[in-house]
């Protein structure tokens, strides 16, 4: 009886998913397609050109994510917040928010569905099954946010590591006679293999300046895309030095020295935290093993002695 209920539930869910997919992806008639092509010929040509440059995985993810995002659309404020977080993680695609929302919804549905199916196969009681399903729902809710936060922290850490080298190269370039825009272009070219994240950000800021955007706005966008405090301080210093006409090379040199000092202090702080962080693995893994190796023979002898008595 349990097997019949499980198979019936699986068939109903499968048919429901297939029907929903057909409603969202059903092909249009030939007349509708021709009218759409006649009205938006230019837009279709540009879209086809862009589709040729996309990767197959990204195209497939977009096709799957678009109908799912239509079911539960995000608000404008939430979409801007997610877009900012995705930019800080390194995802700048126009459909990045849609794909992320689709992954959230899939995670919310997949984990409880798999747990419910496993509980139905193993024949667990309803109370235990509800507890496991609730736990899986919590995991599916927080897992995409946790992974996005880890990606953001990792990219920000790489940007911090490359910022000191970028500032040294900027000082050398400006003192050699290059302007700030040319120095940013030199940074993006020289650090492309060593620090690709900071190189890409400076290259994008230089491209914004080339297309006509103000330098102050391009630098502020550079700080917002990364979310790094050191880079935000550098941008504020560059804007202030450019506005008041002071020497940019001297200001960057002073900021580079302070950044080196801050970087050394962070390394010393991490070294001081290492001893505290080692207490947990030592207490959980090393000390019990030592107790077993040292006190194990004595405990066995004591058990044998008490057994003989």
Describe the protein in words.
This protein has 309 residues and is mainly alpha-helical. The protein folds into 2 domains: 2-10 and 53-153, no CATH class; 154-274, Up-down Bundle (Receptor-associated Protein), CATH 1.20.81. Helices cover 87% and strands 0% of the residues. The longest helix has 50 residues, at 126-175. The model is unreliable at 41-54 (pLDDT under 50).
How much helix, percentage-wise, in residues? Answer: over 70%
User: Would you count the extended β strands for me?
Assistant: 0
Gross geometry: flat
- CATH architecture tag of the largest domain: Up-down Bundle
Helix and strand content put the structural class at mainly alpha
Number of helices: 13
Q: End-to-end distance, in Å?
A: 57 Å
Largest sheet: none
Please mark out the parts with pLDDT under 50 across 5 or more consecutive residues, or reply none: 41-54
Element string (H = helix, E = strand) = HHHHHHHHHHHHH
Strand content: under 5%
**How big is the Rg?**
29 Å
Under CATH at level 1, the class of the largest domain stands as Mainly Alpha
Indicate the CATH topology of the largest domain. Receptor-associated Protein
Output mean pLDDT: 77
Number of domains: 2
Brief sketch in words of this structure:
This protein has 309 residues and is mainly alpha-helical.
Defining key terms:
87% helix, flat, mainly alpha, 0% strand, single chain
Outline the secondary-structure elements:
Blueprint: H1 2-25, H2 30-39, H3 41-53, H4 56-71, H5 76-89, H6 96-122, H7 126-175, H8 180-190, H9 196-210, H10 215-226, H11 229-244, H12 248-277, H13 279-308
Helix pairs in contact: 4-6, 5-7, 6-7, 7-8, 7-12, 8-9, 9-10, 10-11, 11-12
């Amino acid at each position: 009886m349990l097997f019949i209920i499980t198979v019936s539930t699986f068939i109903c869910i499968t048919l429901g998913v297939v029907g929903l997919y057909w409603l969202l992806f059903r092909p249009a008639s030939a007349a509708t397609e021709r009218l759409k092509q006649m009205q938006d010929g230019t837009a279709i040509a540009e879209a086809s050109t862009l589709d040729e440059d996309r990767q197959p995985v990204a195209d497939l993810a977009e096709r799957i994510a678009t109908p799912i995002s239509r079911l539960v659309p995000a608000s404008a404020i939430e979409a801007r917040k997610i877009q900012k977080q995705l930019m800080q993680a390194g995802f700048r695609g126009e459909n990045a928010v849609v794909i992320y929302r689709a992954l959230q919804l899939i995670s919310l549905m997949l984990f409880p569905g798999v747990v419910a199916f496993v509980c139905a196969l193993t024949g667990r009681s309803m109370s235990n099954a509800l507890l496991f399903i609730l736990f899986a729902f919590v995991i599916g809710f927080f897992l995409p946010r946790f992974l996005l936060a880890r990606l953001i922290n990792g990219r920000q850490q790489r940007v911090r590591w490359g910022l000191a080298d970028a500032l040294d190269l900027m000082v050398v370039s400006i003192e050699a006679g290059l302007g700030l825009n040319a120095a940013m272009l030199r940074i993006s070219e020289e650090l492309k293999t060593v620090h690709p994240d900071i190189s890409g950000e400076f290259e994008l800021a230089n491209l914004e300046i080339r297309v006509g955007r103000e330098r102050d706005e391009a630098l502020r966008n550079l700080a917002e895309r990364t979310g790094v405090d050191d880079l935000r301080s550098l941008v504020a210093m560059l804007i202030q030095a450019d506005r008041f006409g002071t020497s940019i090379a001297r200001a960057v040199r002073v900021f580079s020295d302070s950044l080196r000092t801050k970087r050394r202090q962070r390394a010393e702080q991490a070294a001081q935290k290492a001893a505290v962080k080692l207490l947990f693995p030592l207490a959980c893994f090393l000390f019990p093993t030592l107790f077993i190796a040292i006190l194990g023979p004595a405990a066995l002898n004591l058990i044998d002695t008490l057994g003989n008595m």
